[in-house]
């Protein structure tokens, strides 16, 4: 096997530096989740296929990674099924398990399965990898991490308020200031579709509207026409295309448009409560904004819809999103459980922090002291000090081999270890340690206590 | 879908309590790994099949979970292959990826793939789930976590010394005192096989010897005979069956037995160095012991072999193991890279800590303060205090709904939240908060600052 090994496309190896930076983001998110009363759960990497299949639409089903049954998986399969080579049909016979596609469906499954052990409203967070057989591209991977916080069992709008605050808290802690948190409400979209008489085309209508940023007013209108939405209906939408003013003014024009839709007006009320309350409580660094073109997750969201954009100076899609789904657990037979949640896109946040150079310098926890190895006797002397340093929570290591001095120093240098200790016969005799500060090159002799004091800071 | 959902056999959901306890163990291991100079890496959950297949023996190949190719996976498959229904043959045509089976092979692959970016000796740790299609049983799962620390690129025995110390450090931090760390050396086993003239039967011989604890001297002898090891050879092993005395005495009798095997004597030298040095440096709470029947991982270990047993009062197999493999990366074409490492069995350590009630009471990080929801005005007043508490790093939450008082108190009770704040009209008027201490039932009125001071402790 002379061929250099590789990893599957769309997956990644994470170096020590990568892991440190990713943990910095995840730890920040995690500590905020906890402050807000969310508790961690974890679910298996693979679920029974029936748990996942059919929950993400046809496209989703295709993108789910299926696991081949163990053993002689073809044994029970009838020969004629095989000869037809119908991959889709055969899949269900040779695969019973699949890798999770997101954290929401496993969460719904968890809630239903454990409903008798849980205290509702149940606030959970979950940070685990998910897998999708998507075409890999920049910022899109086949294995990636989701960081979700959801509440299930309450339809209180205070949750929406708190989730906006939570976004703001995390982003501010990451020094990612001036992010925009966009909010919309499915009921507003339904109301619009209702008043323009395109209720049966809600999805087509919102998918087109969602592209306003990308393809502009004319593009959206063209797509709507193509989808069979009438010219007169589109005309009524002019308010949306020329949406101006501050949030309160926008909500007023929306109210006028939706005056005949009870559902639409309810959506406006909900958004208004969240925006007003958040503004009265205040945000640290983010900006909350009504965006009626926001239509993500329309297959399942029934109330609030959230999306977070990185600061304007960075070119990056959304770095988070979420919303309310009135019947989260209905797919598994537990009715009337409203859920609301948000998700952080770890990989994209990583790219943004990298681009803006916002990772703290101290993020990598590295060895602080390397002890040069001059031979077994010296190494034993060094190991006594190393044990002592470690007891004082200072990461230290002995260069394992009696290699040339230059090689050992190069190791310290490349590993960016700030302190090197040289202890040979003289030091052993005088019970001292010679410390070299790598940055300055200066050397000084210390007792063990002095050594600890010096390398601590 | 009225059927209650479930998860695949051998997998687990982890509740908030489970996650907290597991994180306690993993964080303890992780912090010790860092103190010893190990750096974290992470590798993808699935690897190319060719990376994994053939690395764990025939049995291992069977236990590897294979991932079905996406799309029309049968398309290119030749019809005659299908009609023969040869599952094993077909697997390689419909599956190109597989879930990782351990962390060692992916680590070897990582080292070879990234050899030009790494500084050797490379000390890495890795804590990730692995998957095996094993028959599930108590303490054995299809998805479980490995916590590994390995050094590659040095054959210094100081690594073995440090790895024993590392075991001792982690176990002691977990309050898991009096664990036994067993050490052996592949060269000793090879030496024994050599001097009894059973070199060609090394594996059979050690597999049998490994069972001494379980099936006793007679059982082992019987199995050896069955495997074709001669009676006269077995007779020479009497030393091992009646192995007595302290470590130094045992090493002496071994030396006599192995006096004609250069390899065997080298193994004794190595073990002696590790045991002597560790004893001179001292262990915190564990006990290091020579065990010549220890033969785990003989397919790959070439030098030291480690295994850790839980304290004697617990019935549990090994909670960790490891060893040295002289040619770790050879399977991927990079020769002469010696590696040595240890692994912690998270699931078993968990069971042991549970049984011995060694999880600290503070392990679950929970919400400290719940604010009762009396209505929107009161909730807004509460939310101002909640934001303030969170700024002071105190986990607080508002009960989201205006539910009956009893229901809200029950929630606090079941969630084991220690403090509840009641703030209604009177409190708003006097800018105070009424705090109820759940354990005692006592209530007292505080300013916001007083509230923080009280709930902090």
UniProtKB/TrEMBL annotation, chains A, B:
<comment type="similarity">
    <text>Belongs to the class-II aminoacyl-tRNA synthetase family.</text>
</comment>
<keyword id="KW-0648">Protein biosynthesis</keyword>
<dbReference type="InterPro" id="IPR004154">
    <property type="entry name" value="Anticodon-bd"/>
</dbReference>
<dbReference type="InterPro" id="IPR036621">
    <property type="entry name" value="Anticodon-bd_dom_sf"/>
</dbReference>
<feature type="binding site">
    <location>
        <begin position="102"/>
        <end position="104"/>
    </location>
    <ligand>
        <name>L-histidine</name>
    </ligand>
</feature>
<feature type="binding site">
    <location>
        <position position="132"/>
    </location>
    <ligand>
        <name>L-histidine</name>
    </ligand>
</feature>
<feature type="domain" description="Aminoacyl-transfer RNA synthetases class-II family profile">
    <location>
        <begin position="1"/>
        <end position="400"/>
    </location>
</feature>
<keyword id="KW-0067">ATP-binding</keyword>
<dbReference type="InterPro" id="IPR004516">
    <property type="entry name" value="HisRS/HisZ"/>
</dbReference>
<dbReference type="Pfam" id="PF13393">
    <property type="entry name" value="tRNA-synt_His"/>
</dbReference>
<dbReference type="InterPro" id="IPR006195">
    <property type="entry name" value="aa-tRNA-synth_II"/>
</dbReference>
<dbReference type="GO" id="GO:0005524">
    <property type="term" value="F:ATP binding"/>
</dbReference>
<keyword id="KW-0963">Cytoplasm</keyword>
<feature type="binding site">
    <location>
        <begin position="300"/>
        <end position="301"/>
    </location>
    <ligand>
        <name>L-histidine</name>
    </ligand>
</feature>
<feature type="binding site">
    <location>
        <position position="296"/>
    </location>
    <ligand>
        <name>L-histidine</name>
    </ligand>
</feature>
<dbReference type="GO" id="GO:0004821">
    <property type="term" value="F:histidine-tRNA ligase activity"/>
</dbReference>
<dbReference type="GO" id="GO:0005737">
    <property type="term" value="C:cytoplasm"/>
</dbReference>
<feature type="binding site">
    <location>
        <position position="146"/>
    </location>
    <ligand>
        <name>L-histidine</name>
    </ligand>
</feature>
<protein>
    <recommendedName>
        <fullName>Histidine--tRNA ligase</fullName>
        <ecNumber>6.1.1.21</ecNumber>
    </recommendedName>
</protein>
<keyword id="KW-0030">Aminoacyl-tRNA synthetase</keyword>
<dbReference type="InterPro" id="IPR041715">
    <property type="entry name" value="HisRS-like_core"/>
</dbReference>
<keyword id="KW-0436">Ligase</keyword>
<feature type="binding site">
    <location>
        <position position="150"/>
    </location>
    <ligand>
        <name>L-histidine</name>
    </ligand>
</feature>
<keyword id="KW-0547">Nucleotide-binding</keyword>
<dbReference type="InterPro" id="IPR045864">
    <property type="entry name" value="aa-tRNA-synth_II/BPL/LPL"/>
</dbReference>
<comment type="subunit">
    <text>Homodimer.</text>
</comment>
<dbReference type="Pfam" id="PF03129">
    <property type="entry name" value="HGTP_anticodon"/>
</dbReference>
<dbReference type="InterPro" id="IPR015807">
    <property type="entry name" value="His-tRNA-ligase"/>
</dbReference>
<dbReference type="GO" id="GO:0006427">
    <property type="term" value="P:histidyl-tRNA aminoacylation"/>
</dbReference>
